[in-house]
Description:
Layout lengths: L4 H19 L2 E2 H11 L8 H13 L3 E8 L2 E8 L1 H26 L5
Antiparallel strand pairs: 1-3, 2-3
Pfam family, one: PadR
Organism: Devosia limi DSM 17137
Protein name: PadR family transcriptional regulator
Amino acid sequence: MATSQSSFLNGVPELLVLRLLRDREMYGYEIVQAIREASDEAIGFAEGVIYPLLHSLERDGALTTRRQTVNGRSRVYYRVTPVGAGRLAVLAEQWHDLHRTIAGILAEPRHA
């Protein structure tokens, strides 16, 4: 496994969005809030990060949408497709691999 820091960090919003949407459909701002709440405010992505990601995932077939009017406002709700579930599985495995690698380095330093 070879993961650069920038590619890993770029994948975090996608991983979290797909994971949250795996359980239930949500609209964009709700996703932003859910990430903050689930991380006890440690992780916060601006709407300017989340909305382009949602649109990209929808274009790629990882998400599907439905529009609903709530209190006079139109909201777009997103949910994971089978393609998105597969993508989530790959991203989660990459995360777990990276976590194991870092944990191993932190646990016992290697000497040349």
